[in-house]
């Protein structure tokens, strides 16, 4: 076993220990002050209020790429 202590300032954002979703599930994103993301799957995505997401390779809204967002599930 390996134990790593990253100190008191280290933040753990993972709430369930599962691997992150890395597939393409974004269908559209509204361009409002508070963006609404529509996904392409009807299966349970596993996100919950307070989860953090990071977008990569988004076309058309490149300003959100590689940024972290705290979400609310609608």
Automatic annotation (TrEMBL):
Protein name per its UniProtKB record: Ubiquitin-activating enzyme E1 FCCH domain-containing protein
InterPro entries hit by this protein: E1_FCCH, E1_FCCH_sf, Ubiquitin-activating_enz
Protein's organism: Rotaria sordida
Residues of the Ubiquitin-activating enzyme E1 FCCH domain: 34-74
Pfam families, sorted: E1_FCCH
GO molecular function: ubiquitin-like modifier activating enzyme activity
